[in-house]
Target: 2-isopropylmalate synthase
Amino acid sequence: MMLDNPATKYRPFVAVDLPDRQWPNRRIETPPQWCSVDLRDGNQALIDPMDQERKQRLFDLLVKIGFKQIEVGFPSASQTDFDFVRTLIEQDKVPDDVAIQVLTQARPHLIDRTFEALKGAKNAIVHVYNATDPVFRRVVFHVSKEECIEIAVEATTQIRRRMEEAPETHWTFQYSPELFTTTEMDFAVEIVEAVAGVYRPTVDKRMIVNLPATVEVATPNNYADQIEWFCRHVANRESLIVSLHPHNDRGTGVAAAELGIMAGGDRVEGTLFGNGERTGNVDIVTLAMNLYTQGVHPGLDFSNITPIMREVEHCNQLPVHPRHPYVGDLVFTAFSGSHQDAIKKGMAERREHPDAVWGVPYLPIDPLDVGRSYEAVIRVNSQSGKGGVSYLLEQEHGIELPRRLSMEFSQVVQEVADRLGREITSQMIYQAFVDEYLAKVSPFALAGHRLSSEPDSPKVHLEATIDEDGERRTIQGEGNGPLAAFIKALAAAGHDVEIIDYHEHSRGQGADAEAIAYVEVRAGNEAVFGVGTDESITSASMKAVMSALNRHLSTRAPAPNVTEDSLAGAK
Ligand SMILES: CC(=O)SCCNC(=O)CCNC(=O)[C@H](O)C(C)(C)COP(=O)(O)OP(=O)(O)OC[C@H]1O[C@@H](n2cnc3c(N)ncnc32)[C@H](O)[C@@H]1OP(=O)(O)O
Ligand SMILES: CC(C)C(=O)C(=O)O
Model:
C-alpha cells in the first residue's frame, strides 16, 4: 500500500471558461511572424553564454535563414550584450529589413541603458516585461495588482518618451506580462490595456503583446483557450500583434504554439532546435517544418539543415539530439525490417511518379527538402529485413536481387548482424554477398565456352570447359539457348540440375558495365540459388549455375567472412 503520495502536493490547472472556443475548427494557412530569441532567452540559459564571435555567427545565420525580427540580447544586463548591440549598429551589420529586439526589465536605469545601446539603430523593438502572476506579485515583488500595473505603466511612459526623442529609429514597442499563463486572465487583459493606454498603438503602429508560457504548466489546449480568450476580451485587438512565447517544460511547447496560432496568435518567439531556459523555448525549426509538411511554406529557409545544426551546436556548445524532429542525425534512417520494406516500395513508386504528392511510408518529409540525401535512409542491423538489405545492395552496388533470393540473403545478413551485435554497413553487406554467392569457385569453375549453331536451326550447341575438383574437362550440350544447352551439357556429364528461375541485368555503366545473372536451380532434392557476373551475359548465366552447384555441394559456412576486422576496414 502506498502510504505517502507525493503527487498530492500538486493541483490540476484551472482552465479558462471558454465553452464556445473556435480554435479547434481552424487550421494554420499562413505562417506567423517569427522572432528568434536565440541570442537572448537561448543565450541566458547556456552554461557559458556566447561571446561576441559566437553571437555574431549566430546572428548572421539567423539573418540568412530569413528571420526579420531577432532578439539580440539584454543590453542593460551585461557588457557583452551591450557591446554586441553597439557592434551590430555601428558596423552596420543589420540588414534594412531586419529589426533587432532587446529585452529590459521595467526599471528606469535599465531602460535608459537599453536606449543607450540602441542609439542609431534603424529598426528596433524594445521589449519590456514584468511578472503579473499572483505568486510573483506576492512572493517576489510584494506588490498589489495596482502596484504591478504601475510598474508596467511607468516603464511604458519612459519608453514612449525615449522613443519620441530618437525619431531616426523605426521603433516598435513590445510588452510581456511575464508568466501570462498563470496570471488571472482578466488581470492580464487589464494590465495590457493599461500599457496600451499609455503607448496608444494604432492599426498602422501596432504594439506587440507577447503572452508567454514562461513555465509550461498545462496541456496545450489550455494555452490556446487563454490566447483565444485574451484576443476576444482585449480592447483594440486590431492595433495589437499578439505574440506567443511558449516554453517546453511539459514537452508540448510546439503543440502549444500551434494551437496558440490557431487561437489567434500572430507571432511566435522561439529558438532554433529549442534551446532555452530549463527544457527550452519552443523549437522554431520543428514549428516551421511542421507547417511545411502541411503545404504552408514557413518563410524560413531550412533547405540545408545540417550546416545550420552544426553552426548552432557550435554557438550554443550544446548538441542537437540525434532524434530531433526533421534534423537529428537518425531521423531519416530506418533500421527495422518492415519500415525498410515499406520505404523501399515507396521510393520505387516515387521514382515512377516524381511529381506526385509526397507519400513515402515512414518518411513524413522528403529528406532532399532539408538537404539530406537518401543514402542514410536505410541502415542495417539485427532488426532489419530483406527490404533494407536489398535496398542498400541496389542503391549502392547496383545489385537488384530477385525477391526469393533477397529473402534467402537477408538471413545471411541477419546472421552476421546478430553475431556482431551492431550495425553493418552496405560495404559489409556487399562483402557478405560476394562471399556467399560469387567467391565459391570449387569444386566447379567455368574456364571458357564456345557457342555454335546450324544455319536455320533454333538450337545452339555449347562446348564448355570447366574445372571440376581441380581437373579440367570439356562438356557439350544443345538447347534452345545457351543456358539450356549448358544444363544439357551438365546432365550429360552426370549432374542432375534444372533451372527453376532466372533473372539478369547489367550493372554499372560504360567500360565498367558487366552482366549479373541470378539462377535458382534444383540440384538433387535441393532448391538453391547461384549468382554469376561477367562481361558476357552468357558467361554470367553459366557462372550463376556453377555458383548454385558449388553452394549445393559445399558444406554451407554458417555465415560469410565478415568479422570485426572487416567491420573496421569497411567503415
Ligand atoms: C522569463 C525571463 O526570461 S525574463 C529575463 C531574464 N533574464 C535575465 O535576468 C538575464 C539578465 N538579468 C540580469 O543580468 C540581472 O537580473 C539585471 C542586471 C537585469 C538586474 O540585476 P539586479 O539589479 O542585480 O537584480 P536581480 O537580478 O537580483 O533581479 C531582481 C530584482 O529585479 C526586480 N525585477 C525583476 N524583474 C523585474 C521587472 N521585469 N521589472 C521591474 N523589476 C524587476 C526584482 O523586483 C528585484 O528587485 P529587488 O532587488 O528590489 O528585490
Ligand atoms: C521575458 C519573457 C517574455 C520571457 O522570456 C518568458 O516569460 O519566458
Observations:
- The CA atoms of residues 114 and 148 lie 21 Å apart.
- DSSP finds 18 helices and 14 strands in the chain.
